[in-house]
Amino acid sequence: MDFLASFTGLDLPGWAWTIVLTAGAGIGIAKTAVPGSAILVVVLMAMALPARMSVGVLLPMLILGDVFAVGKFWKHTDRRQLFTLMPFAFLGLGAGYLILRHVTNEQLKPIIGAVVLFMLGVHQVSRMVKNKGAGVPGEGYGRVHPFLKVLFGFAGGLGTGMANSAGPIMSLYFLIAGFPKLPFIATAAWFFFTMNLLKVPLFLNLGLISGQSLRVNLLTIPSVAVGALLGYWIISRISQEKFNRAVLVLAFVAALRLVF
């Protein structure tokens, strides 16, 4: 732990360093196999690091995960859906940036927790809708009411701009739209790769990305790569529904910890 503290300038307890060094695996798996599950990593990193620093540290990790996902699945991207979502996502990103300019570490923690709880609630509503016959993967996929495109595009931009926490929001959108697995992952990957690159200058301006945060990022590269490679392996070998259910339960518990 002494090396980690001297290298990064952060004095963290052992449990926090364990999260920092291994959380990247969750990012890699989320980007290449279980879209939306990275919200658990967002919550855990906000517990391990100062809230604002956690947002800055996560961004390069997410971009690296995006690179693995785009590189593997780019041929399956639904460009039409991607281009219709982007204008509204840009507006949401701007709103998230403005919020970040006016909150402290302690204020940001419950905001992140509240966003997570909201997304989990919306996800459960979507499951009920799906169970009633709406949005069956592969059947007429991509047919979404324009209002939902505006709503989810804006909410996705807001969530990713404010707390790197839009994965479940956009997963919900692609679920409602009935995307098959590979177009789902590929289109989501391009969406977040674009948004995350746009966030870099914004986060630099806010001081969320710094020399210190980038030193922490150097420690996370191996776990992101391992997680992405593991995601390639598990995507066709495990029930995504069961895996998502476990992650959502853990995210719910962690979100409550942040809020209260």
Total beta strand runs? 0
Global mean pLDDT: 84
Shape: globular
**How many domains make up the 3D coordinates?**
1
Transmembrane segments: 12-33, 39-70, 82-99, 182-204, 216-236
Membrane topology: Multi-pass membrane protein
Subcellular location: Cell membrane
Main location: membrane
Question: Care to give the gist of this entry?
Answer:
With about 260 residues, the chain is mainly alpha-helical. It has one domain (about 1-260).
How would you sum up this structure, described in words?
With 260 residues, this protein is an all-alpha fold. It has one domain (2-259). It has eleven helices and no strands. The protein has helices at residues 2-8, 14-32, 39-48, 51-73, 79-100, 105-131, 146-163, 167-176, 181-206, 211-234, 240-259. Residues 133-139 have low confidence and may be disordered.
Task: Please write out the topology.
Blueprint: H1 2-8, H2 14-32, H3 39-48, H4 51-73, H5 79-100, H6 105-131, H7 146-163, H8 167-176, H9 181-206, H10 211-234, H11 240-259
Offer a few descriptive terms.
membrane; mainly alpha; transmembrane; cell membrane; TM_pro_TauE-like; TSUP; 260 residues; 11 helices
